[in-house]
Design brief:
Two copies of one chain form a homodimer. Helices cover 40% and strands 22% of the residues of chain A. Chain A has two domains: 119 residues, Arc Repressor Mutant, subunit A; 62 residues, Ferric-uptake regulator, C-terminal dimerisarion domain (Dna Ligase, domain 1, 2-Layer Sandwich). In chain A, strand 4 and strand 5 form a beta hairpin. The two termini of chain A are 32 Å apart. By secondary structure, chain A is of the alpha/beta class. The structure holds a DNA duplex. Chains A, B: Its main location: cytoplasm.
Amino acid sequence: MSKSPDVSTLTTPAIAAGQGTGGSSETGYAAKHTPSPASEATLNTDKLEEVKKLFTAHLENKGLRKTGERYAILEEIYARSGHFDVDELYAGMKERGLQVSRATVYNTLDLLVEQGLVSKHQFGRNLAQYEKSYGYRQHDHVICTECHKVVEFCDPRIHGIQTMVGDLLNFHILHHSLNLYGICGDCRAQAAARNTHA
Amino acid sequence: MSKSPDVSTLTTPAIAAGQGTGGSSETGYAAKHTPSPASEATLNTDKLEEVKKLFTAHLENKGLRKTGERYAILEEIYARSGHFDVDELYAGMKERGLQVSRATVYNTLDLLVEQGLVSKHQFGRNLAQYEKSYGYRQHDHVICTECHKVVEFCDPRIHGIQTMVGDLLNFHILHHSLNLYGICGDCRAQAAARNTHA
DNA sequence: ATCTATGCAAAGTTTTTGCAGCACG
DNA sequence: CGTGCTGCAAAAACTTTGCATAGAT
């Protein structure tokens, strides 16, 4: 049901990334265009190993069992690109022959989010979206309220805000979520076209 | 003249702590936040009139009808302080003898959010929280992941980020939502106390 | 008089829970 | 071998929808 539109990341102090307004054309999510911050580069194979180790450590720490299902879910997540919801993850696994129950997916996602290997988002609709987050730069999102396209961006100022607010209010801040909601160029163009017609 | 902030908010460059919605019993969905009896605080009589006028204009603009239910809901919202969810609003109105159906509450909230008189939040759980927003300074939230306490803050840097990202990505940004998640001082103290015990 | 918005309840979505049996440690 | 984890399905939590009718214009 939910679609995960194209995702690219902009880093604010720099020049805008490619992401030309031109051809968004509401694709599925074939095009993952995560630009190359120096930390990325390597393909997921070795990163997957790292993540598995971290997950293992976490499970051992908490005295939880290392089940095949949990690792299968972790792998599926790290094989994916962009955002996904529980249903997409579940369907994707089924497609690959990795049958796992929904309850287990929810359970494991909670574990992963708790550990920080996965992040959870609520982009306005009542549907939790997830995203792998280990080894990826912390980023935030701009969401088009018309077509639900999601674009990523980074801005270093957020870190400063986070620190300052945490200090002033005596919170130990663990993570944040900044969503900007607006109308993308494509949708504005479409609206303009409609208006000229009328 | 009538500008008494009923929910104290911290403005980052200054110092002024404050506390928002209180926590609630945990346990998943079962329990909700205790409904905030909305009778206290400064009666926003004149502000309410302003808001009603704006709402009226919006309804006329869109060719929608000015029904008693819609105004009743608007009033209930502006009589409230802090955050609330649909159920709390619905229950609050019932208590005052303002019987309105849930469907109408949802419908009207959508209208108000669309117009910007009310803002909608998703604080991590899949439960929409709302808040009146006309005449109140745009603010953001720090959420305690333990007790679900919510504290508000303002930071002017966010506006700059919003503008810059909108310009660079060609989005017409309408609003944003910045949530900082962490553990509040109280919960950390409790955790520390537990640890000293062992 | 015309249609829109309401109310009610049923259906729809997403997430959680209870319990029998399997498998990790 | 015991107990936590999984799978299944039913329940819960929240939201949306369909249809008859009250009510705004």
